[in-house]
Write a structure and sequence with these properties.
With 274 residues, the protein is mostly helical. The protein is built from 13 helices and no strands. The longest helix is centred in the last third of the chain and has 49 residues.
Length: 274
């Protein structure tokens, strides 16, 4: 088994065509929409643009750098890639508001179709917090506690499906909780905090199972138990840190919502008094 250092991750860049195409397309479309909005005299939040740029950068690191190059050699490197694609990229994407940007810049026909998709039966089901929570947590359990990981490392299509799943599941889980786009199902802020807390055991369950296993969970791809335990530590620590970040984001959004509600109530009372 190849020994992989942090230096290898930093300098071991190579081209992954699929990842590069997706990142490039996203990097072209989002700024183009922002410029289109600016030409109409409407400003777009720089924080949202920065979040999207961070998502593209994280995706490139996950797929093009040594992380993508050596993730099939070491379990802990694979876990770094999982954290980037399944946690970091989704969090930054939902904070970037891509759906809102699309609605504000698309033509009337596209805007109508997009609204219909979001508000239709499929959109409401896919966007429901319980669906995202189940895919997010259940996907972790299936990937790391069944032979799915070995299959994904042996088969190129299954490997691509794994990447698509972890990123999509992360977006579907986080969008109703901290996303800035208007969605059909947006639970109240206390429920959002509870949803984040309810997802924490998934990281702990997988990490504990990987740490205490007496044999490798993916013996063909990652036969080293010490490597598996290092991967478990990476997954657990990163999961806890990202959970704290999401809780902080929910808390800030809750505070801002309360401020806006207070301001509206004060304005109503002032108008009634006048």
């Amino acid at each position: 088994m190849r020994v992989v250092s942090f230096g290898d991750l930093l300098v071991g860049w190579r081209l992954d065509v699929t990842g590069a195409l997706v990142a490039t397309l996203a990097a072209l479309l989002y700024p183009r929409s922002v410029r289109q909005l600016a030409r109409r005299g409407r400003a777009w939040s720089r924080w949202r643009s920065a979040a999207f740029a961070g998502a593209v950068a994280a995706a490139l690191v996950a797929t093009q750098s040594g992380v993508g190059r050596y993730e099939s050699d070491r379990f802990w490197v694979h876990m770094v890639q999982h954290v980037l694609l399944g946690l970091v990229v989704p969090l930054l994407v939902v904070l970037a508001g891509p759906v809102t940007l699309a609605l504000q810049t698309a033509g009337p026909a596209t805007r109508t179709e997009l609204r219909r998709a979001l508000q239709g039966r499929v959109g409401r089901v896919v966007g429901h917090p319980l669906v995202g929570w189940s895919l997010f947590g259940g996907g972790m359990v299936v990937l790391y506690l069944t032979p799915a990981l070995d299959l994904a490392q042996r088969n190129g299509l299954a490997h691509l499906v794994m990447h698509v799943h972890v990123t999509t599941a992360g977006i579907l889980f986080l969008a109703p909780l901290v996303g800035v786009d208007a969605l059909p199902h947006r639970p109240p802020h206390p429920a959002r905090l509870l949803a984040v807390l309810a997802a924490v055991p998934f990281h702990a369950l997988v990490a504990v199972a990987l740490t205490t296993a007496s044999s490798p969970v993916a013996p063909d791809a990652y036969p080293s138990l010490s490597d598996q335990r290092t991967a478990a530590a990476v997954f657990w620590i990163a999961g806890e840190l990202l959970s704290l970040a999401v809780m902080a984001a929910v808390g800030r959004q809750w505070w801002l919502a309360e401020r806006r509600a207070t301001a509206r109530e004060d304005a109503r009372l002032d108008a009634a008094g006048a």
